Amino acid sequence: MSDNSIYYKRTIVKNELFSSFLQQNRPLRVYLPPGYNELLSYPVIYCQDGEQFFNFGRIATHMNRLIYDEGVEPALIVGVDVDTATRTSEYAPEGERFTAYCRFFAEELVPFIERNYPARPEAAERIAAGDSLGGTVSLHLALDYPDLFYKVLSLSGAFLQSTRDRLQRERDLSRLYMYMLIGLDEQEVKTERGTFDFLAENRKTKELLLERSSRLLYEEKPGKHLWGFWQNELPAAIKLMMKN
C-alpha cells in the first residue's frame, strides 16, 4: 500500500478567465496530476462549484489515490468557481444568466483550457461534473453542446421539470454517457427555489434518459444532500467515468 502522504502532494494552478458573456472574471483552479508533462496529453474533468469540489469533495486527493493505487489514467481537473449569490441564476435552466454561463463554459472556458494545457480536444476525453444544480447545468451542456460533452457525472442533480422538458426534445441520447447518484434521504431538500423531493425527481429523469437510450449508470444510496455523502462516492464515480 502507498504512503498516504503522497495523496496530499497536489499541484493546483489558479487562473482567472475574463468572460465576455458573463462580463466578469471567473476564478479557475486546475489540478495537474502526478508526473504532469506538457509533452503528454490528458483527459479533463470540468467541475461546477470548483471550490467545493476541491475543498469539500477532496477531488484532488481522490484523483491522486486513484492514479497511484488503482491505475486510473492521469487527468486534469478544472474547477470553475461560482458566486453563491448568482449560482442559481447561472446553473438553473430558467435562470437569467444560464445561457450566458453555458456559452462561457463551452465557448470560452474549454478553448482556454485547451490553449493553455495539454488537454485532449475530443468529447470522449471531457467529463462535465456537478452536484445539485451543478449536475443540472452539466447535463444541459451535454445536451446543447454534443460535440463538446457527452460524459456527465451528477451528484444528486437538481433535475426538475425544466430539465425533463429539455430531455423531451431529444429522440436519441445513445451518445450520452452519464453517472447519476442520488441519496435515499433526499426526499425533502430545501433550496432557495423551494423544497423538493430530489429522489423522485431523479427517478423520473432516469426514466426519460433510459427511454432515449442513454448509457446510464444510476445509483441510489443512503445519503443526504451534502458533501459528506458525495465526497465518499466521488472516487468510484470518477473511476467509472474514466473507464469508458
From TrEMBL:
Gene3D superfamilies assigned: alpha/beta hydrolase
Output the InterPro entries linked to this UniProt entry: AB_hydrolase_fold, Esterase-like, Mycobacterial_A85_antigen
* Superkingdom, taxonomy of origin: Bacteria
Name of this chain's protein:
Esterase family protein
